[in-house]
Structure formats: structure tokens, C-alpha cells
UniProtKB/TrEMBL annotation, chain A:
Its EC number is 1.8.1.9. This is thioredoxin-disulfide reductase (NADPH). It comes from Pygocentrus nattereri. GO terms for biological process: cell redox homeostasis; cellular response to oxidative stress; glutathione metabolic process. Keywords: Disulfide bond, FAD, Flavoprotein, NADP, Oxidoreductase, Redox-active center, Selenocysteine. The gene is TXNRD3.
TrEMBL record, chain B:
This is thioredoxin-disulfide reductase (NADPH). Its cofactor is FAD. The lineage of its organism: Eukaryota, Metazoa, Chordata, Craniata, Vertebrata. Residues 376-486 form the Pyridine nucleotide-disulphide oxidoreductase dimerisation domain. The keyword DNA-binding does not apply. GO terms for biological process: cell redox homeostasis; cellular response to oxidative stress; glutathione metabolic process.
Amino acid sequence: MVTLRMRIQMLVQKWYQVFESSKIPQSFTLLYDVSLRFSKPFMAVSHYICLASVLENGSNYQDLLMEMTGQKTVPNVFINKTHVGGCDKTMQAHKDGLLQQLLGGESEVYDYDLIVIGGGSGGLACSKAAANLGKKVMVLDYVVPTPKGTSWGLGGTCVNVGCIPKKLMHQTALLGTAMEDARKFGWEFSEQVTHNWETMKTAVNNYIGSLNWGYRVSLRDKNVNYVNAYAEFVEPHKIKATNKRGKETFYTAAKFVLATGERPRYLGIPGDKEYCITSDDLFYLSYCPGKTLVVGASYVALECGGFLAGLGLDVTVMVRSILLRGFDQDMANRAGDYMETHGVKFLKKFVPVKVEELEAGTPGRLKVTAKSTETDEVFEGEYNTVLIAVGRDACTGNIGLDKAGVKVNPKNGKIPVNDEEQTNIPHIYAIGDILEGKWELTPVAIQAGKLLAHSISLKRAVELYGQENLEVFHSLFWPLEYTVPNRDNNRCYAKIICNKLDNDRVIGFHYLGPNAGEVTQGFGTAMKCGVTKEQLDNTIGIHPTCAEIFTTMEVTKRSGGDINQAGC
Amino acid sequence: MAALCSKHRLKHLQHLCSFGFKIPRRNFAGKGKYDYDLVVIGGGSGGLACSKEAAQLGQKVAVLDYVEASVRGTTWGLGGTCVNVGCIPKKLMHQAALLGTAVKDAKKYGWKIPEPVSHDWATMSQAVQNHVKSLNWGHRVQLQDRKVKYLNMKGSLVDEHTIRGMNAKGKEMTVTARNVVIATGGRPKYPTHVPGALEFGISMMKWPHVGLECAGFLTGIGLDTTVMVRSIALRGFDQQMSRLVTDYMEAYGTRFSWDAVPKKVEKLPSGLLQVTWTDTQSKQEHQDAFNTVLWAVGRAPETKTLNLKQVGVELNEDTGKVIVAADERTSMSNIFAIGDIAQGRPELTPTAIKAGKLLARRLAGHSSQLMNYDNVPTTVFTPLEYGCVGLSEEEAERRCGKENVEVYHAFYKPLEFTVAERDAGQCYIKVVCEGHGDQRVLGLHFTGPNAGEVTQGFALGLQCGFTYAQLRDTVGIHPTCAEELTKINITKRSGLDATVTGC
């Protein structure tokens, strides 16, 4: 005997039969209205199943429905076997885009299955992956030129004005140190070694150019439509794309991914946009910046300051309060000390109030006036270049997110998302730097060393677990490569934080020394597997490396024991 | 002779007595029966680690260390192979070669360096020696700090509790100990069947990657270097990786004579050494002249003069190595062997150190933990460095069957190579996984810059039994070479192009 329960289940499974065998009932009117908003209403309607229309009256189906779906009333809407709800829920689902998502077949409804806004690392990876799955995809990328007029190609911050040029310039500085070291290792060459900014800039820009081109080609190969235009929402499923010449085009898509990234923040003081540069300009600067003031204590500030000093320039970093906010402060200060011994000057507790041009040129001369954050003291200094690196803002303000109903944190412009990177509007997703509250794994390159704050700082760990439940192991070390040139003895530092309540599990990993990124990556994987101090101790070191220090950490911070490394 | 011995023993007993009153001994049963709780023969990485740890735990310890001069008369100080003639000088010379590459690269990065650039061996050698000497000194000081008695003497066993020491002047003494640890390591082998090998050759360092490492840095500092290989390079390592390492070396100027067996070495009137060798494939004979011939054909354990067999310590007759159990114990219950001298142990500093420490803890009754010799990571410091941990592809297939192994791989380009316009054709990553279930990682292989630094953390991952999924789940650190490991997704089976493009 077919029970009512089975009957309902069958109907949900075989919705199409239901539809064919019944006439469109009264309760469908509403749904029909909803469906009219689609370009092909009947297609859409055919996906609906309204149980109310097919079940005989008088039966106890309402109780059963309550049990099965948590809803008693009709219409009770299922779409493609997924329970949506009643009238209000269905209308809401339509508004959110959930309905369209469940309906499938969007490709026939919209121009694209997916439009990605922003052609950076995240956006490109996402668009290519979607295209691989057979989706029709468009990527819109547009670089708004800096106040100095600098702009660049496809690939986003990382490739054009971030990780890549930064690491290459860091490498340039490292090679400068390498040449000094080389003499100690027996290499003989003239003392007259100089650096040519333009050669470096051209080499770096050429490489970036090849990457830009590579991205274009790979998008084409994957049949992703790339449009070099600025995108903003005009409707939840529709964007306006404005190209360089101001021509506007409209596109619709079932889903969107926001990957617009961030751009450097300015100070909002007289002269900043007119005379100062940011990291967006630095890597494309056609001339050597000369004597440079770096404003800020972000990792971008320290990295840029570090490699500029490494190229032999006179560099001062102006810091308002603390270095590398959010990083482990012990590590941050060690990094700062390291830079100071390598010629970077720090001007702490000062903020600039104005920048004036004394003389135009490449580079020109600028006068910076700053005031103390604690006293009435005023500082005046003359520099060739002022580089502002006080942080970055998410590019979410001018892309019509209000038109799409996407929630943005008004404080920082970041977009909250769920674990699936979905914004509050289900058909709009967000990835990359514009996400709120996502942890970044940020290696910071400073001059000849690198600092890395991985997972959590000690301060944060104390907040989370309590001082008494943490054990911190630490050690200074001397990379073998530094022994012969006799530099930076016991300046490199390693630290791990363990949670005593959880089997001495390693919850924090910090390393200040050469090749920090390379060293840390594997430990990151191990932490993903919940590595404990015991497992760390049981791992055999690779000799002679810097990374092996982590397999022999014995001194706890609590003990106050000697952490100078001795012998091997 | 016997009289001499007993006299010495008496002297030491007296010494012990006076000692016994001054220092409260934290000792087991049999207090005062022996001069020392522990005597370690061999002051290399393993021996020093073991003796220091034991002393730290309250044991009375002595270390005997003595360096027999090499055939060419070279000797060195305390610290053993690694510090004096192994890892340390080797990596420093490798660094010298890398810096040579850096000077070349620097030009592409905008540094203007007036020609000529040349290399002075004496400067490098002096700098390396200075560092090694400071380490020798450091070891001496550490032994002193930890109250370990250091005896610069050649040790041998009289019986299972008695050790005879002889210094450079031939002066002898004996000491007794409850436990003895043999950690005398190995020394390079000379192919004594090759006429001229002993007289004209020099030797160095460790088997089996030493030959390539030396050739690499010699080429790197601008010398014309040829490597003669009998069959395959880097035996015991993953052979695909091995080929990448040698391909890279060939591309950067090291010459290779494959399938070559040296026949004789003669001194020419010019002072050059003429080497004659046979090609095992064509059976033809070849000749060439060199300034220096360096033998790196393997290492022999330093067991012969220890008198081990006579006191009942079993040796492997073929290799001369000491047969040990999982707790490093030899066939004599109070004699232990660690490091290169022990049969079946990896010839690596960190394993010797760790084994030595753990042994000391067990001997002092502080722990019962055994040394885990699985998943020992290692790195070959050839010009293109090669780091690995776990199984080679061949070994994984042999153990699990080809169909049960999934190999992920990638050819990548280090960012540093781009601007420097260096060929990255041999920069390669391979992750050998179980083919089923969670795809546990069995082996991980990496060629590229800083291979040792890259591999260390992943070795820890292997220690935790990590899976392919966990590897892929890790956030990459950009831009590094190591991050390529977290992005690896092409299986060898698929036959797809494994070249990494873009970021």
C-alpha cells in the first residue's frame, strides 16, 4: 500500500510527472509572478512543484508535511528536490538568488554563468577553475591609475605591485649582501660596485609584463572572456562595465565573484597625493628614489624600506606607534633592530602633517613636516622621495554593492562571508584581500632576513589560552652562511608556542632568518596536521640548515635559560 | 706492558678515590667500581652529543678522540667528520660557489660589477678553516662546561669495561667504565687496487653524494671539473631526482664521464696527474690529465684498531660495521655503537646526535625512548640542491606495488631565476603518495634553491603521517619555491604537462 508519506516523497522525486498530470492551480499564480521576472518564464515554472495542487483534500497530509518539512501550510515549494518553503520564503529565495541557483539552467537566462570582478590571483584562479567546469565565465579587470599616473596589466596586486616585484627587489638587495659575503669566501673583484635602478626596474617590469601576457593567454585558452573595464553593479544580476574610453556595456550573470582586492591608503594631509608615492608607484618608478622617507610600520613599509637600504639608499622609516601591528611584537621588534643594524633609520612616534615640494625632478626634493605623537616637537626633513605605506583599503566602495544588496563592514570596507566565501547575497561571493576576518599567512621580507608571523602571535595566544597554559620555546641561531662573513651572529631567532592543555600542540611558529618563507611552508603543513612538540623533537634535522633549529628547541622562555646557539 | 697497565689503573683508582669525596656521585649500584659511568670513544657529532647529555644527567663521562692523519697528512680537531671534513666545510664551500652565481646574477638585477671577477682558494680555505677551528674550540669548551673529561687519545678496548688510550706521543693509559659507546665514525676509502690512487689522490667526506657535491662547488668557483661515475649517481636516492641534479650540473659546466672505471693514476713530468680509465660500455680506454684527483668512492668504518672482535663485539664482516640492536646495543650488553660506525644507520650528523642523546638518557635511566630511524630527511648540497624525506618513487613502488602508488609532480620556476635568466628545467617537485584512501604521503622530493630549508618542515609533516589532502589544504606562502608543494596537483599517471605556469 502506498502511504501518504511515500506519495509525497515520490512527488518530490518526480516533480515533472506531477506537473504534467495536473493543471496549473490557483496557488501557482504567485509562483508564476515570480517566474515572470525570468527571461523564459515557462522554463522556470516547469521546475516548480506545488504539493498543494496535487494532493487530495481532506487527508492528514498537512501533519505529515509538518513532520517532513517543518511547514504545514501550502503552497509548499520544492525546487529540484530541495525544500524551499512557502510563499514568503520563495519570494525571499528569489530575491536572494537562491531560487535561480536551484533552478539551474541559468546559462540560458543570463549572459554568463559567472562574472568575476577583479583579475588578481584569486579572481583569475577562480575564473579558470569555473571555466574548466564548463561554465561561461567573464573576468573584468581595470586598474585605476595612481595619482602619479602609474597603472599596470592583468594579474592584480601580487604580480604587478606586490609579492613579485617586492621579492625581486628584495632579491636585488640580497645579492648586494651576497657580493659583500662573496669577498670573504674568496671572490675577488673591484670595490667599485654600484647599483643601477633602471636596469633593475626594467628587468622586473619585463618579467611582470611576461606574466601579464601569460595570464591573458591562459584566460583565452580556457575560454574565459576578459574585459579590461571597470565594473559596478546596477542590479543584483547586472553590472555596468566602463572601459578606458568611457564606453559603457552591461552584462548579466547568474553568479558573481568579487575579487577587487585592496589599494594603498593615503594620509589625507596636504601634499600627499601630489608629491608622495605608494608601493603602487615604487615598482614602476623610472628613476632611483634617492634619499627616501617611508611613512608607516606596516609590513609593506618595512619591506620596501629594507630593500631600498639594501640597494645603498639613505632610508628613514617614520613610525606612529608600534611596528607590524598584529604580528608577534617580540618578533616585530627583533626585525626592527635587525634593520637598524643594517642602516635603516627609524623615527618613532612621529606623524607627518604636510609634504611640500622644494624642487621638481627625478627625483626632486621634498620637505616633510611631522609632529610628535607625545610632545609638541616638530620634525622637518628633506627627502627625494616619500613613500606612504600606512595600510591598504578594500576596493569595495565604488562598485555598486548597495545596488546588489551586499553587506560591507562600514569601518574597513571589508565584506563578511560564510565558510563558502558567500556574501549575504547568495549568488555573490567574495575572495581575497577584501574578505573580513580571514587570516593571512604573511611572510615579511626585511633586507637580508625575513620575518614571519604564522598563525598567531604570542599576545593572541595568551588571550586565547592563558599565559599559564602556554609553553614558549625559543632560540637564537647563527646561519652557517653568515659565519664566514662574520655577520649577524645570534640575531636570527626561532620561537614556537605550544598549548600545554592540548598535548603540547604547536599553535604558533615564528622565525626570523634567511629564507623564512621556504622554511616556514613545511611547518605550516605540519601544523595543519596538529603537530606536537614531541613530534617536533622526534623529527630529524637536516644538517646544516637553519630550519633544523626547530627540531632541537629545548629552552623555554619561562626558564630564562641561555638561548645563544653553540656548536652544531 | 701488563705492568704499565696495572700501574695506570692504580693511578686512576687513586684519582677516583680522591674524586669520590669531593663530588657527590649520583650513581647506580656498583658505585665506585669504575672510573667512569660512561666512556665514549670518538668525539664526533654523535659521541659529543651522547657524552654531554650523559654528563648533564649526572653521569661521570670521558670522551676519547684522536684523528689519524689522512694519507696526505691532514689532521684536524675535535668534532668529528661533520665539523671538520664533512657537512660544515662542504656547505661553506657550496656557499662560496652559490655566491659566485650570485655575483653573476647580480648584474641582471642592476648591480654594476667591473670585470674581472676571480676566486682565490686560499682566502676561502682560510675562512672555512677559521670557522671550523672556532667550532673545535667550542666543542672543547662545552665538554669542559659539562664536566666531561676529554682525552685526546686513540681509544681501543682491553675488555668490555676497560679502554686503553694512546696519545700522539705513544703514551698510554687505561680507564674503566660501566658503559662504553663506540662513535668513531668512518673515513674515506681509497681504491687501493688502482695504481697511484693512494700516492696522488686526495679524499674527502661522505658517501654517496660527496663526489657530486665536491664537483659542484669546484665547478662553481671556476675550476675545470670532471666527475667519473662507474654506474649511477646518487645510489639509494630517487633516480629521477638524481638525473635532474646531474643534468643541472652538466648544464653549468661540470663534465661527466659515465660508465667509467679508473685504471691507474700516473704523475707526468709536468706535475699533472694522468688518469687512465675504461669505459665499461665500449670497453675502450681513455686518458686525461688533471691537477688533482679526488676519490669519493665511499667510506670505511673506523673499527679495525678498536679491538672490538676480541672483546666480543660482533661486526659485519663485509662492511666492518658494528652490529647493533634497536637500542644501539652491540652484542656486548654494556657496549653501544652510534653514528656512521653502526650497521644500517644513516650516515648523517643529526641522526647520530639524536641517537647519542637518547642513548645517554636511557643509560642514565632517565627515559626508555628509542631512536626512530624512519623518515630521516636529507639534503644533497649540489649546485641545484636536492632535499628529500621518506621513500623514493622506486622504493615506494617496490614496497606497495606500482598500482598502489600515486605520484604528484611539478616542474616549477623559482622567482629568483626569472630576472637572472637562469634555466629552471631541473627545478622539480615530486610527492609520492599511497594510491588509495587518504593518500598518505610516503616520500617527498625537491630540487631547487634552499632545498634543505624547504624540506625540513615537510619532514615534520611526514612524521605526523600527513596526507595529500592536508598538503593541498595548507595555505601557500607566496612567492616561495616551497609553496609549489602545496599546489601540486598533476599526477604522473595522467601524463599531463607538469609545468607550473603563472603564480
